[in-house]
Every structure is written in structure tokens, then in C-alpha cells.
């Protein structure tokens, strides 16, 4: 028993070190030591092997503050504000504790922390956080933006108190890729990316969030995520393995996905899972109880532990055999909760509770596999609640769910809100996400209170909570941070939610994104036994499972993807990924990448936002001497024309049409429309006009035309380019006429008759970038790719080489 306790102490010390290190940002909020952050890690590592849940030598339990105050056989262990009168401090100071000559004694630093904590009156983080203001009342539902603003207030206050500076807002490319991966499980298509990047609506992000939440893809992504949280699949290592319970688990994920897509509230979904009856073929959620049981068989305590972890955020596993050594959960509480799952009726198989006296309805006998109290009968009771009195029903799952999903339940809404936050930010407000208790306080107490209150007030509306969080500035911050930033500072800003973390796609995300990139709904990386190399196992029978087997971190957590050596080698060398895209095989690219044909009245050119002082419109081909009726320049999301002379902008040109009072350069930006208020070049078929802005600004849109009144159609620029510059010397191309449509696209081309011209090469490269990295290539990237393609005799093979290069960039597998 002593060896067992010592081993648990060692394991727990490592875990607690990690857990409490996550509270490090709290250190800046208070100079005095706190129980949870500073004292408990010391006691856990050094003292709880003898004074925890397994052993309480001398009757002393050091797991909680009330237990310390109660003390043991020698009386109270501590006297608030008086370390010199506290028995605990006396024994630590004299090195009597930890006992034994072979035990490592506390360091001077650790002793100083404990003494300062006692002298300060035993301050706790949980005590400080009890009266935090959530900023919004919890008795009603609020608009998503109201909640998003409150989220940011909580985080901004924390950052300010910690003297941490948040990173800037993400750009459109970063946000677009992040929101698609988080809400749909894949990158956007090239068309979706182009549409969003061209859109200048100020509320386009909120609209995109709404539209993605309304898709079946959202339900599918969050459904399989929850299925993996229940039990990540253990994938077969050979093709001889059967497909069960993989298919049943996937069916459960699809069932969850349909519920989320249909906007069913979380309390109803929870009830449908925990009270299910009938056959698995009609009720996919039946597999839940087998997945969380033992050896694919349902057990009462397995069901209770899973319900506590997943729906309450509470860890009970260490209280199965005895009182939890480090958390204040007793073996009695573990089995009292298990009693709700001890019996059921209908087609749901009855549960064997183990050896011991025959349990009555509402009771459970502790089985022989437990460490202590074997055979003791325990009545059903709610966690930290009253004993449950059963009447006639053998199935107590319904009453348990009634208690669990009640609005005043202290666990249900907090647990889901914390888990959703973890899903989007890679860490919970409480860590670990299934360890909600007073002695493991949230990093942002007001924030978790706000989210839990809003979730309950909304009727447990899952999509509403996603809307609230995804519309916040916190979620929309960039993951980029200034190069050279101190690693500790970088970590502090990220854990305080002042920066989005860099994440790697899950295997599911990577699979769906590669299917999109390759135009192959059944992307198959299986290797037949005939073609397998020595040492290679035969592939499993399902393309999806084979991908999971190759790209999963390990068999225990197959849906996590680490971009390690094995995965990189598959991405680089697999014949299917080298074969190229099915979309490229047809040599056809959708026409969405082009703007409408040039119009004499008005044209709009959009391009990625860039900081500039100069904007130049160069005519490369026109009928006669080209004419421009007003050249307008806009910033992202703005309708203010920055090019107006009245705003301080200056117009210039390569030449002016002589002998005319009209058609002169001042008309280029005077804000007046019509042929009489336009500029005409003195060069046949060419020339340029330029705007120097009053000050440097982010720009992404240029509007121009031949005659805004629509009376004249001659002198129209048919081929042109738009360039921007910060200093008037180094120019970057923003847009050009190659993106303009000519006629109607051929929707069903004959691949044998299509010639991939250099112009189409550029379009293909742009399409590949949008379809993989969700952005357009830079001018340098375009030039390098074009040079590579044009040096190859087979342009389709060359373009597939560009695709291969893109999917093997680290940028591709990251959720930024």
C-alpha cells in the first residue's frame, strides 16, 4: 500500500506541476501566495502520500483548507495569520515533515511560501473569484455581439492587470482559414476563399460565422469531435481487423452531428445519450455506454465516470477504489453516482454490479475489483448533493439527468462552456477541462461565469455559444507574434488569451482538406498486400480508417495529428499524393477567379489589403487614347474614397491630351462624373494615371470607368494593371485585366482539346493557392511557380508539382 501511495504521489506531482503552471498568469495579480497556485503544488509533491486520500497519518488530511483547519490527532494544523503558532509550520520548519531520513525536505523557498501564506491569512484564489462580475446578467439571453464584447472585457482586464499586451487582429486570410477549420473541419474551397477575400462588408466575418453554423458540415465536425472526446478510436494495425466498433462509433458521431446541425439543445442531446434504450441499430448512442465501459461492455462505474467527466467536468476515476488521494472526492461519492447507472429497463442490457449483497433499487454494491470496502452497499446520491430516494423505477438515469441539466446545476453549463473554449483556444478556462473544482480555479473566473450563464439562459443553445465566442476579438486575434519575443512572455500572452495559439490540424481536418485539394471524395491511401513493401502492414478495409491509421499520433488517440517524420514521409512520398489533383486532370478552373468583363461605366478591382501611399493605373491596351472617368481608392470595409483631391490626394499621369481644357489630370480625382470630367492620355493604347494619397493607408479596392454616365464606350482600357507602392519606387501588383472574364466559361471541357496557356497557368497557380492555403500567392510566389511550370514540358504535371509543394508546406497543416 505504501508503494502504491508513493507511486501515486509521484504521478500526481508531475500532473499537478503542469496543472498549476497553467495558473502562472495569476502570479502577476497578487504578490501574496495563494493556496491553489502556490501552496498545494508543494503539499501535493511532498506531503499527500501520507496525508491525502489513501493515508491520513495522524488523522491529518491536507487536500483541502477545511481539512487543514480541522487538523488531526494533534489538533488544528494551521492557525490563520500565525505561522509561528501553526503545528504544520512548526513541523515543516524543523524538517520533521516530510517524515523519514530518506525523504527530501522542503527547500527554503518552499518553506517561505508556506509561512507567508499562513501569515497572510490563508488566501485562496477560489475565495477571490466567488464574487466576480460576469458583466451580463445570467437570467436572460443576450445578442451574440453583446456577449462577445463582454468576453473581450474580461480578457482585456486580465491582460491589463498582468501588464501583457495582446497581439493585433488577424487578417482576413488567417480568420477565414481558422473559422472554416473550426466550424466545418476543412479549409475553404478556392471559390469560398475568393468570395470572402473580395467582400468588403464590415460585418462579413459575423455573416460567415452564421452561414457556417447553418451548414451540415458544422454538425459533422462538432459531432465527430465529441465522439472522439468520448473515446478516441483504437485503429487496427492490419487489414485483418474487423470494422467494429469503428463503424458504430462513427455512427454515433454522425448521430451527434445531426443533432448539432439541427440545433437541438445540449440538455436534450445529453438526455438522449444518457437515458437511451433499445437496440444499437436504431439508437446509435447506445454505443456510448460500451465505449466508456470495460472491454466494450457496459459498467455502472464506467458510465458514471464518463458522465461526470464529459457532462460535468469532474474527474472521479481515482475515487473508484478509495478516496481520491489529491482531490476532495470520496469513494462513497463515486459509487453513489454509479448507483444511478446500476440498473435499466427495456432493451438496454442490465448491468452487473459485482460481488456483494444484492442491491435494492437505488443502491449499488461496491464490486470485488475495487480496492477498499468491497461488498458495501451505497445508495444513489447526487454529487455533493442529497441522497436520492427512489420509488418504483429500476432505471434511475432519468432522475439523474433531471438533476444534471437543471439550470442551477453547478457543473453542466460550466463544463460545456469550458470544453467549447478549449476546442477553440486549445486550452480551457479551467485546466484540465474535466477537473472543475474549487481547488482548481479558472484562470478567468468572470469569463467562465459569463459563458455558463449565457449558455443556460439560451436554453443550452450550442450554436449561440459558438456565435458569441467566434465574434469576440479574442478569437479573432492573430497567432503571429513579434519575432524575438521572449518565450516566457509569448507563453504568458497565449495562456491569457491575448494571442491565438498555433495549432496543427486533426487527422480528420487534414483528410477532408486533402480531399478538397485533390478533388477526390474518397482519397485512398491504402496499399494492397501485393504492392506493400517489406515491413509494411496491409491496409485496413476503409480509406478513411487507413488515413487515420497513417496520420494519427498513436493508436490510442488516432484523430490527433502530429506533423512528425512518419506523417511527413507519407505526405512527400505517397503515390496517390504524388499523382496530383483530379481537378487538374481536366485542365479546368472555375471562372470565379475572374471579375466581370470590363464595363465602360464602372469597374471594381479587389486585391489583398496592403499599406500604400501611391496607386497607379497603367493602361496596356485600349482603342485609341485611353480615358479614365475618376480613379477611386478605398480601404478595407470603407466607403470613403481616399483618392479625392478634397482629401489631400494628388493626381498625376504619364501624359495629358493637349489643346483641351477638359480631359486634364485634375478631373481624375475631383469627385465629378461624366466625359467632361475625365482624363485622357496622349498615348495611343497606353499610359498611366496615378494617385498619391494624403497619407499611407491600408487599401484593397480600386474603382474606375471610362464614362460613369454611360454615354461613351470608346477609349476603354481593355488590358491594364493596378499597382501600389509605399514610396513611389517599389511597386506591387494588386490586380490586372487577366482576371476579367471573356465570354461564358465552358462548364464541361474536353481535356484533350484544352491548351493550358501561360495566362491559364497563372490562373491555375492562383486557384491552387486559394484551394490549399486560402490565399492568393504573392508576386514572388507566382513568378517562381510560373518559372517552374513553363520550364516543364508537361504543364499539368508541373501544376500538380505545385500542388504537392503547397500541401507539404507547414503553413498547410496549421490552424493559425
**Gross geometry:** elongated
SS strand fraction: 5-15%
Give the beta-strand count: 12
The number of helical elements comes to 30
- Note the quaternary state here: single chain
Roughly what percent helix?
Answer: 25-40%
Low-confidence stretches: 1-30, 235-243, 344-358, 529-539, 553-558, 743-754
Mean pLDDT: 81
Euclidean distance between termini CA atoms: 48 Å
Which structural class fits the helix and strand makeup?
A: alpha+beta
What Rg, in angstroms, do the CA atoms define?
33 Å
Main sheet record: 6 strands, antiparallel
Structure description:
By secondary structure, the chain is α+β, with helices and mostly antiparallel strands. Among the domains are: 2-129, no CATH class; 293-394, no CATH class; 595-739, no CATH class; 751-815. 39% of the residues lie in helices and 9% in strands. The strands form four sheets. Strands 4, 6, 7, 9, 10 and 11 form a six-stranded antiparallel β-sheet that branches. Strands 1-2 form a two-stranded antiparallel ribbon. Strand 10 and strand 11 form a beta hairpin. Helix 7 packs across helix 20 (462-470), helix 27 crosses helix 28 (779-791) and helix 28 packs across helix 29 (795-807). The longest helix has 20 residues, at 2-21. The chain starts with a helix and ends with a strand.
Amino acid at each position: 500500500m505504501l508503494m502504491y501511495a508513493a507511486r501515486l504521489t509521484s504521478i500526481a506531482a508531475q500532473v499537478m506541476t503542469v496543472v498549476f503552471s497553467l495558473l502562472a498568469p495569476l502570479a502577476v495579480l497578487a504578490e501574496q501566495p495563494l493556496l491553489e497556485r502556490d501552496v498545494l503544488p508543494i503539499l501535493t509533491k511532498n506531503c499527500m502520500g501520507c496525508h491525502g486520500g489513501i493515508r491520513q497519518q495522524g488523522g491529518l488530511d491536507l487536500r483541502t483548507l477545511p481539512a487543514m483547519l480541522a487538523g488531526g490527532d494533534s489538533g488544528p494544523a494551521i492557525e490563520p495569520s500565525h505561522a509561528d503558532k501553526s503545528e504544520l509550520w512548526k513541523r515543516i520548519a524543523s524538517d520533521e515533515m516530510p517524515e523519514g531520513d530518506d525523504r527530501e525536505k522542503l527547500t527554503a523557498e518552499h518553506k517561505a511560501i508556506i509561512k507567508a501564506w499562513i501569515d497572510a491569512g490563508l488566501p485562496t484564489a477560489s475565495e477571490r473569484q466567488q464574487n466576480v462580475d460576469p458583466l451580463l446578467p445570467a437570467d436572460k439571453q443576450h445578442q451574440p455581439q453583446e456577449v462577445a464584447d463582454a468576453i473581450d472585457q474580461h480578457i482585456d482586464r486580465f491582460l491589463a492587470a498582468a501588464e501583457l499586451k495582446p497581439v493585433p487582429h488577424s487578417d482576413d486570410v488567417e480568420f477565414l482559414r481558422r473559422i472554416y477549420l473550426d466550424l466545418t473541419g476543412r479549409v475553404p474551397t478556392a471559390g469560398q476563399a475568393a468570395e470572402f477575400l473580395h467582400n468588403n462588408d464590415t460585418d462579413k466575418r459575423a455573416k460567415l460565422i452564421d452561414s457556417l453554423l447553418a451548414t451540415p458540415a458544422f454538425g459533422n465536425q462538432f459531432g465527430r469531435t465529441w465522439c472522439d472526446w468520448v473515446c478516441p478510436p483504437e485503429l487496427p494495425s492490419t487489414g485483418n481487423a474487423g470494422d467494429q466498433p469503428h463503424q458504430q462509433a462513427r455512427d454515433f458521431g454522425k448521430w451527434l452531428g445531426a443533432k448539432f446541425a439541427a440545433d437541438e439543445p445540449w440538455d436534450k442531446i445529453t438526455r438522449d445519450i444518457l437515458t437511451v434504450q433499445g437496440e444499437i441499430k436504431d439508437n446509435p448512442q447506445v454505443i456510448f455506454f460500451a465505449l466508456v465501459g470495460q472491454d466494450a461492455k457496459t459498467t455502472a462505474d464506467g458510465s458514471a465516470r464518463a458522465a461526470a467527466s464529459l457532462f460535468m467536468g469532474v474527474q472521479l476515476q481515482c475515487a473508484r477504489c478509495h478516496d481520491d488521494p489529491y482531490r476532495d472526492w470520496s469513494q462513497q461519492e463515486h459509487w453513489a453516482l454509479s448507483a444511478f447507472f446500476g440498473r435499466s429497463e427495456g432493451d438496454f442490457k442490465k448491468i452487473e454490479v459485482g460481488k456483494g449483497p444484492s442491491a435494492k433499487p437505488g443502491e449499488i454494491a461496491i464490486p470485488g475489483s475495487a480496492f477498499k470496502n468491497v461488498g458495501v452497499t451505497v445508495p444513489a446520491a447526487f454529487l455533493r448533493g442529497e441522497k436520492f430516494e427512489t420509488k418504483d423505477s429500476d432505471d434511475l438515469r432519468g432522475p439523474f439527468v433531471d438533476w444534471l441539466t437543471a439550470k442551477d446545476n453547478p457543473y453542466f453549463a460550466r463544463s460545456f462552456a469550458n470544453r467549447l473554449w478549449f476546442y477553440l483556444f486549445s486550452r480551457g478556462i479551467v485546466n484540465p477541462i474535466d477537473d472543475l473544482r474549487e481547488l482548481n480555479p479558472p484562470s478567468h473566473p468572470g469569463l467562465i461565469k459569463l459563458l455558463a450563464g449565457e449558455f443556460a439562459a439560451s436554453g443550452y443553445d450550442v450554436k449561440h455559444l459558438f456565435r458569441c465566442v467566434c465574434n469576440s476579438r479574442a478569437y479573432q486575434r492573430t497567432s503571429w507574434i513579434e519575432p524575438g519575443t521572449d518565450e516566457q512572455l509569448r507563453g504568458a500572452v497565449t495562456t491569457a488569451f491575448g494571442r491565438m495559439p498555433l495549432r496543427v490540424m486533426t487527422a480528420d481536418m487534414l483528410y477532408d482538406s486533402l480531399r478538397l485539394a485533390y478533388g477526390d471524395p474518397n482519397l485512398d491511401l491504402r496499399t494492397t498486400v501485393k504492392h506493400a513493401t517489406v515491413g509494411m502492414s496491409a491496409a485496413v478495409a476503409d480509406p478513411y480508417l487507413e488515413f487515420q491509421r497513417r496520420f494519427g499520433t498513436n493508436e490510442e488517440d488516432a484523430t490527433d495529428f502530429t506533423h512528425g517524420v512518419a506523417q511527413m514521409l507519407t505526405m512527400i512520398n505517397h503515390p496517390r499524393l504524388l499523382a496530383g489533383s483530379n481537378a487538374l486532370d481536366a485542365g479546368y478552373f472555375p471562372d470565379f477567379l475572374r471579375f466581370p468583363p470590363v464595363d465602360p461605366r464602372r469597374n471594381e478591382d479587389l486585391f489583398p489589403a496592403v499599406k500604400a501611399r501611391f496607386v497607379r493605373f497603367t493602361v496596356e491596351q485600349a482603342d485609341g487614347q485611353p480615358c479614365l472617368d475618376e480613379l477611386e481608392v478605398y480601404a478595407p470595409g470603407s466607403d470613403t474614397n481616399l483618392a479625392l483631391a478634397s482629401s489631400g490626394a494628388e493626381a498625376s499621369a504619364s501624359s495629358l491630351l493637349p489643346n483641351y481644357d477638359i480631359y486634364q489630370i485634375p478631373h481624375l480625382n475631383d469627385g465629378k462624373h461624366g466625359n467632361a470630367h475625365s482624363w485622357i492620355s496622349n498615348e495611343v493604347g497606353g499610359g498611366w494615371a496615378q494617385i498619391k494619397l494624403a497619407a499611407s493607408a491600408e487599401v484593397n479596392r480600386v474603382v474606375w470607368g471610362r464614362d460613369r454616365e454611360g454615354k461613351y464606350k470608346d477609349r476603354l482600357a481593355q488590358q491594364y494593371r493596378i499597382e501600389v507602392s509605399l514610396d513611389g519606387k517599389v511597386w506591387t501588383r494588386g490586380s490586372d485585366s487577366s482576371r476579367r472574364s471573356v465570354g461564358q466559361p465552358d462548364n464541361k471541357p474536353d481535356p484533350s482539346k484544352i491548351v493550358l496557356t501561360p495566362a491559364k497557368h497563372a490562373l491555375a497557380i492562383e486557384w491552387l493557392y486559394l484551394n490549399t492555403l486560402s490565399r492568393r500567392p504573392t508576386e514572388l510566389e507566382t513568378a517562381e511557380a510560373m518559372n517552374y511550370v513553363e520550364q516543364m514540358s508537361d504543364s499539368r504535371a508541373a501544376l500538380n508539382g505545385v500542388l504537392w509543394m503547397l500541401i507539404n508546406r507547414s503553413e498547410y497543416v496549421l490552424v493559425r
